Amino acid sequence: MVNKSVLRKLSNQELEGYLKEGNRFVPEAVQVAFEILEERERVFSEQEKTAVQQLIQHKKEEEEAKLSEEHELWKDHITEDANAIKLFPRELILLIGGIFGTVPGALLLGLNFIKLKKYGAAILTFIFGGTFLPFQNFLVPLIYKESTQGFFTYRKSPEFFMAAVGALLLLVFWVLFTPKKLPYRAASYIFPGILSLIMLAIIINYPEWFSGYFLVSFAR
Question: Which of 1, 175, 182, 183 has the fewest CB atoms in 10 Å of its CB?
Answer without folding.
Answer: 1
